[in-house]
Amino acid sequence: MIRLRPYKSCDAKNIVSWCNDEETFLMWGGERFGNFPVSEDIINRKYFDNNGDCSEEDNFYPITALEDNRAVGHFIMRYTNGNSRIIRFGWVIVDSSKRGKGYGKKMLSLGLKLAFEILMAENVTIGVFEKNISAFNCYRAVGFREAKENGYSFAEIKGTKTKIIELEIAKEDYFDIHNQ
């Protein structure tokens, strides 16, 4: 059984080990964390000293997924543009030995439950690199759909323009899916 808890500084060592190659690192956080390989100190400085690059004080919520008290995944939540009704998920990663086994779906389903039922969000968004097919399929499996407005953007990754598909799920759609 998977459960969520707030991120702790000791979780950085797991994220570093899961970013075991440059492509995984780039798909996880793009170049927001600098160059590959990432270190525990860089992650913890980003999270604790720089509030995940969020300008608002109470706007950055890193989450760790646990199974049997062992970290199996991680993602962050933040409000979008100061709006407490829209939550953005990001920096999603699953233990490399657990990928493809449904851990991401379970983790993000719990994240959606937290966003909609506890934090009272009206909408949750997430972006996914176009070539990250496994992440795209995971997000779709938990209920995310392509955004109706601003359906994509671009980021420059290692000098290459890379398409980001924007996905969203509304509160009513979440409840329709998860209360069947």
What does this structure look like?
The protein is of the alpha+beta class and 180 residues long. It is 32% helix and 34% strand. The protein is built from six helices and eight strands; from the N terminus they run βαααβββαβαβββα. The protein has helices at 12-18, 22-29, 40-49, 103-118, 133-141, 171-178; strands at residues 2-6, 60-67, 70-80, 83-94, 123-129, 145-146, 152-157, 160-170. Strands 1, 2, 3, 4, 5, 6, 7 and 8 form an eight-stranded mixed sheet that branches. A hairpin with a 2-residue loop joins strand 3 and strand 4 (83-94). Helix 1 (12-18) packs across helix 3 (40-49). The protein is globular. It starts with a strand and ends with a helix. The mean pLDDT is 93.
Catalogue the unreliable spans.
none
Shape: globular
Number of helices: 6
Mean pLDDT: 93
Sheet having the most strands: 8 strands, mixed
Distance between the termini: 21 Å
- Taking all Cα atoms into account, the compactness measure Rg is 15 Å
Tell me the number of strands.
Answer: 8
- Class computed from helices, strands and strand pairing: alpha+beta
Strand content: 25-35%
Helix content: 25-40%
Along the chain, the helix and strand elements come as EHHHEEEHEHEEEH
